[in-house]
């Protein structure tokens, strides 16, 4: 079987993302599953796709410095080729600039032959004048500077400046432009974290304990994890450390009946089962019935039997839980995903600030619907993977105003061992630059009557 050019494969994937709003991870996995890209080229493909998406704003700024035609007026094929070439020249140390230019021009002659000379000129001119590229002034225009320098939408860097100040926002912006850590969660129903780490070492995987999650392990690599014998034996599942903390704050007890709304792909569901020693009942629900299969597959692989899956739209009453009440409910609400944009960088370019209020309204509707299924003295944890105040504190405050039977509990009092991760109001909020994990939010509510 002949091998495939990783640069051409990266171009094809980036093109589909632009045209179809597809997800990078799914397209990359599909391409690699064909086994037509071999050896180090597999890593190069992944690096090119994610790198171009993470640095797209900076790359377009550089193009604008050397192209007489505005970036948004360039043909899509030309723009993608320029991004690919410039990413290799400016951000990929292991590829010589000459190879980056030559390989991109070679691809241009195949895909956009009339523009190959233009592409060649831009790439070479940018390389010769890289020290003369102008950026917005940090003092006069910090929002614009952070947006261009670290490649994020300006509206988002503006939010971060409001939340963290310019210095903190710059640290966050830099972290959000880098690849995320790869973290797994030990299946404590079958193995201890220490034993799993020893097993991973035998399988050639370097790893270390996570700082906050008692069951988390950070790996030094992410490729082909599903092929590890320890994965097939159900000793762990992939889950970021921040995501592993929300079920700890829910604190389910053995024998509880728990609702995990918006549960797919099942990371928190199976963790709740672990915390309950696979006793009681866990209702795992999702609006997408196809995603329920992912939860079932994970449960089967981990040996978990206490989970029942149901299709349910969390914004409306459901026959699946019509006569059921719960001691604990986890609402891992659908959100903008602004806290995981380094993991899904294509998402930051398709979102706008106008998306946040409608998203918040949906989140409030979900809470309004699900709160009636919670028993008196029951616990509800609301969580998102968003950095936006509008999707987090605003949602909680709006809900509490309408529901005096609920109170927000102070996580600082309940979980003092995690105190540095909590806000002044007792909510959980993690920051990638500060905590080394995804941007996450959680609030714990109690039903008092």
From TrEMBL:
Active site (catalytic residues): 385
Record keywords: Methyltransferase, RNA-binding, S-adenosyl-L-methionine, Transferase
UniProt subcellular location: Cytoplasm
PROSITE patterns, sorted: NOL1_NOP2_SUN (PS01153), SAM_MT_RSMB_NOP (PS51686)
GO molecular function, a single term: methyltransferase activity
Reactions mediated catalytically: cytidine(967) in 16S rRNA + S-adenosyl-L-methionine = 5-methylcytidine(967) in 16S rRNA + S-adenosyl-L-homocysteine + H(+)
GO-annotated biological processes: methylation
Residues at which S-adenosyl-L-methionine binds: 262-268, 286, 313, 332
Domain SAM-dependent MTase RsmB/NOP-type per the UniProt entry, residue ranges: 172-448
Principal location: cytoplasm
Domain of life: Bacteria
The enzyme's E.C. designation: 2.1.1.176
NCBIfam families, per database record: PRK14902.1 (NF011494), rsmB (TIGR00563)
Function comment: Specifically methylates the cytosine at position 967 (m5C967) of 16S rRNA.
Family statement drawn from the similarity comment of this UniProt entry: Belongs to the class I-like SAM-binding methyltransferase superfamily. RsmB/NOP family.
Record-given protein name: 16S rRNA (cytosine(967)-C(5))-methyltransferase
Gene coding for it: rsmB
